[in-house]
Write a structure and sequence with these properties.
With 215 residues, the chain is α+β, with helices and mostly antiparallel strands. It has one domain. Helix content is 27%, strand content 29%. It contains five helices and nine strands. The strands form three sheets. The protein has a four-stranded antiparallel beta sheet. The protein is elongated and about 85 Å long. The two termini are 40 Å apart.
């Protein structure tokens, strides 16, 4: 009969469903407990206009808090791209070879396959932030001959849980943890981090909780 031609034996149907299920890609989620190992400073760009006849130092004194990243409630946040860029730059720096794939490195997999979806909200209001005066090149480039005084926000310590989405199956748990730890020590986040010849923005990895989610 025509209807019989559409029937699939139970065993074959089960195998088909298993096959389809195993083809569904899954994303690993790493919930990482991070703790600062050195002060952290932000330098967000802003376009606040100077007042008439306002001196450069007075301008800095008035506007330095605008170099902070904050949420709508006024709490300081560390942008998600700070953590994403840190681990991606670490992958580039380490240039780890992928086993069994010749000269291929994990670098491109980290660049395309890692996402940090949310900022880390610190338990620190903008009104609680301290400032730091530094003598820096006027053009913002290392080694500049002309220097000026600038004021930046300074956070002595921070900690929190950051979620990393790993959407590339090539990135194993062991490799992710290895690169993340290197990112905290060798790359860092924020202004004057190790990547930029500084020592601020270093962090350690105190623990990782793993989950999986279908894409």
């Amino acid at each position: 009969m025509e209807g019989d031609a559409l029937r699939i034996p139970h065993t074959n149907l089960f195998n088909l469903l298993v096959s389809l299920y195993t083809q569904v890609k899954k994303m690993k989620i790493a919930k990482c407990k991070l703790v600062s190992q050195s002060p952290y400073s932000q330098g967000k760009y802003h376009q606040t206009e100077k007042k008439s006849k306002e001196l450069p130092k007075d301008y800095e004194s008035r506007t330095w808090k605008q170099k902070c990243h904050i949420n709508k409630d006024g709490y300081v946040i560390i942008p998600p791209m700070a953590f994403a860029n840190s681990i991606k730059e670490a992958a580039t720096y380490m240039s780890i070879s992928i086993p069994g794939q010749g000269k291929s490195k994990y670098t491109k997999n980290f660049h395309a396959g890692i996402l940090v979806p949310k900022p880390l909200v610190l338990d620190m209001h903008i009104d609680e932030i301290k400032s730091e005066w530094v003598f820096v090149p006027s053009d913002g480039r290392r080694g500049g001959t002309t220097r000026v005084s600038k004021c930046f926000p300074l956070i002595e310590s921070w900690n929190g849980t950051v979620e990393y989405y790993i959407m590339d199956d090539i990135i194993t748990i062991d490799i992710f943890e290895r690169v993340l730890k290197a990112a905290g020590q060798l790359i860092g986040i924020g202004r004057f981090r190790p990547k930029n010849w500084g020592y601020y923005g270093r962090y350690s990895v105190e623990g990782i909780k793993w989950e999986e989610q279908s894409l």
